[in-house]
Design a protein that fits this description.
Helix content is 58%, strand content 11%. The chain is α/β, with parallel strands linked by helices and 229 residues long.
Amino acid sequence: MASGGFITYLRVSTDRQGKSGLGLDAQREAVRVYLNGGNWKILAEHVEVESGRNDARPALDAALAEARLKRVPLLVAKVDRLTRSVAFLSRLLASGVEVRFCDLPQIEGPAGKFMLNQMVAVAELEAGLISARTKAALAAAKARGTKLGGNRGVVMSAAVSEAGRAALSAKASARTADLAPVIAEIQAEGITSARGIAIALNERGIETSTGKGQWQAVQVQRVLARLEA
């Protein structure tokens, strides 16, 4: 039995299906069966009315953002409700969200093996490229006579250090982008002080960037500064 919180993503291909509920009820039932009782809660449901051939998915983007903010899995009723595109799957991997499929609970059968192989292949490629770039940067630094090592007064390659800073900056920017619509919604409610926004974020179950502790005014001020930059 499942436990914890989940964000669900449902998709139908036509506006008629969306308005009538045709297809959505079956997907909700698949979610219910997958969760199989237990101490769980669906924190939000995002419904998309869009063709599977279209990679522009505003509802999916919103679902991924909310799942990242609340650090919970995104639950999809069927893998074909999401996409059949390898490139699109790689985008999901890069989103940093755990995506679960109700029709692949144990990664069984041809569809399950295909999905797992594609996800693993993309993840391995990304890890391999990062590793290769890091090794090349370290080798170049060593060739220049730069001493390499841990934190024992050793100078790290400028290229590797810059890559690390860039990665942290990109992560902060992505987090800020996820928070932007939530903060805008809070401000639209008349809450404009950093302290008030912090309280509202805590009430909504939005975790801090570290996932530790509660939002404080100073943290909100940093986010607001990045949004204004």
